[in-house]
Design brief:
Elements: H1 9-27, H2 33-49, H3 51-62, H4 67-93, E1 96-98, E2 108-115, E3 118-122, H5 133-141, E4 145-149, H6 155-168, E5 174-176, H7 183-188, E6 194-198, H8 201-212, E7 218-221, E8 227-230, H9 236-248, E9 260-264, H10 268-282, H11 298-313, E10 317-320, E11 337-340, H12 347-350, E12 357-363, H13 366-375, E13 381-385, H14 389-398, E14 403-406, E15 420-421, E16 427-428, E17 430-431, H15 433-439, E18 441-448, H16 464-474
Parallel strand pairs: 3-4, 3-6, 4-5, 6-7, 8-9, 8-13, 9-12, 11-12, 13-14
Antiparallel strand pairs: 1-2, 2-18, 7-16, 10-11, 15-17
């Protein structure tokens, strides 16, 4: 079955990639463990061998991207994810035993995990390696073929990804299709056997519309306003240290970055003062500081500037942390910014920030903070700072988020054996680890009937024996 899409150069390339991989899947619908492991090893070696090239490519695309952040936040979790897939693959591939009703014995039940076929992956611009290669690796571990569409906002990195993947893996295993913003809707409308999209909730709605045409199963990894909750009396130095890092890594362009902080009103000013000092100590200069990343593109930089201006115009307090008082105009560097006392229904309180801007909100009773979180859209991450085990458990039980960290930020995403995903407005489905393997697999239930069994006893014409057996089975 082919997608009904108007022909053009991009579509022709997309159609050709899809049909080539579909044919390869039909020729070998269940690749062996050895074949899959070989794919993963080649992918792993490609990332390791080209990591410096990747760091240069993305830094040039961003205007500047910290080398250390590229290595720590992209390369490291990518290779860890592939290595985890390799380590656990044989176990994941094994059929699992399931029980069968007494009436069906001595039959046995198994669930077999079968490759779905051809998986489409739409990757974002903020972490183009870490949000492209690990889902590809897990889809390959599950025995699928993959077509990747990198973000049109990072075309040079898209070409880089095409280069390393083409060199690492055969063209009947993985393909990369680059294109402009018109390619996205065409890509979503293809009859994939599974589609993974990472991006914004707004675009996700269009992705779902495209996928609905073929009833394509979809995994959405989105974002939202991920809160930090600091419980009363918690050590602010500890909280500030982890929140400042989580907010400013990759200049805040992280889907699980802290979006706002809920702190008790008695600690609010102390928190703001400590946060400002911590940000300044992390980045004493900004303009030529190799550790401080730029905003990825002009459009996003302008959007972030509008968020700050709108809050300021509405009466919010704004602190721009620029210790060397440098002129950042003409660059895409944006100073770390702290905003507090922002009125409700301003842009900064309603939109996902996705930049080095942190909103501070205070509460009098902890229940107010929890109500604020629960009354909003469900976030991709929740960060709780609390040393009380019982209260921590209670808060985790009464708030719903894609994932959570207790007394830290971001790091749960790096735990590649745990599922990563959102809920509601922050996404659907998950990948990473065994859950990722299951996402890209079809769980096929198989009943194995033995040669000698009692099923014929229940065939018509029904008589005295069936009348006695059925009450015994039903109870």
């Amino acid at each position: 079955m082919s997608a009904a899409i108007e022909p053009n150069v991009q579509t022709d390339e997309l159609q050709e990639a899809y049909h080539a991989l579909k044919a390869a899947h039909r020729a070998n619908p269940y690749p062996s463990h050895g074949v899959r492991s070989g794919w993963l090893m080649r992918l792993l070696n490609a990332v390791l061998e080209t990591r410096e090239e990747f760091a240069r490519a993305i830094s040039a695309e961003f205007g500047h991207r910290s080398w250390h952040e590229s290595m720590a936040l992209e390369v490291f979790p990518t290779v860890e994810s592939i290595r985890s897939d390799l380590k656990h693959l044989k176990k994941w591939m094994k059929p699992s035993r399931r029980g069968v009703p007494l009436a069906l014995r001595p039959a046995s039940g198994r669930v077999r995990y079968q490759p779905k076929g051809v998986v489409g992956v739409i990757a974002p611009w903020n972490y183009p390696l870490m949000l492209s290669i690990p889902p590809i690796a897990t889809a390959l571990a599950a025995g699928n073929r993959v077509v990747l569409k990198p973000s049109e906002f990072t075309p040079a990195v898209g070409r880089y990804l095409a280069k390393i993947l083409t060199e690492a893996l055969p063209g009947d295993v993985v393909r990369v299709v680059n294109g402009d913003e018109d390619l996205g809707p065409r890509f979503s409308a293809m009859p994939w056997d599974h589609l993974l999209f990472t991006g914004s909730p707004r675009v996700a709605r269009f992705v779902l519309q495209g996928a609905a045409k073929h009833l394509t199963p979809v995994t959405l990894e989105l974002g939202g306003k991920s809160p930090c909750i600091i419980t009363p009396g918690f050590d602010l130095n500890r909280a500030v240290d982890r929140i400042a890092y989580g907010k400013l890594a990759n200049a805040g362009q992280t889907c699980v970055a802290p979006d706002y902080v809920l702190v008790h009103h008695s600690q609010k000013q102390a928190f703001i003062d400590k946060l400002q000092k911590k940000m300044a100590s992390l980045f004493p200069t900004l303009l030529n500081n190799p550790d401080y990343s730029s905003i990825a593109n002009d459009r996003h930089h302008q959007r972030l500037s509008r968020l700050v201006e709108d809050a300021e115009a509405a009466g919010a307090k704004v602190i721009r942390v620029n210790p060397a008082n440098e002129d950042l105009s003409g660059t895409r560097k944006l100073a770390p910014t702290v905003i507090y006392d922002a009125p409700n229904e301003t842009m900064i309180t309603e939109e996902e920030i996705f930049g080095p801007i942190l909103l501070i909100r205070s509460y009098e009773h902890l229940s107010e903070a929890l109500d604020h979180v629960n009354n909003g859209e469900r976030p991709l991450a929740l960060y709780l700072f609390d040393d009380d085990p019982e209260r921590t458990q209670r808060i985790l039980n009464t708030t719903i988020s894609g994932g959570a960290c207790v007394n830290d930020t971001l790091l749960h995403v790096g735990c590649v054996d745990m599922p990563f995903g959102g809920i509601g407005n922050s996404g659907m489905g998950s990948y990473h680890g065994e859950e990722g393997f299951r996402t890209f697999s079809h769980a096929k239930s198989v009943l194995y009937q033995s040669r000698i069994n009692g099923i014929p006893l229940f065939n018509p014409p029904y008589g005295r024996l069936v009348n006695r057996l059925l009450p015994l089975l039903i109870g």
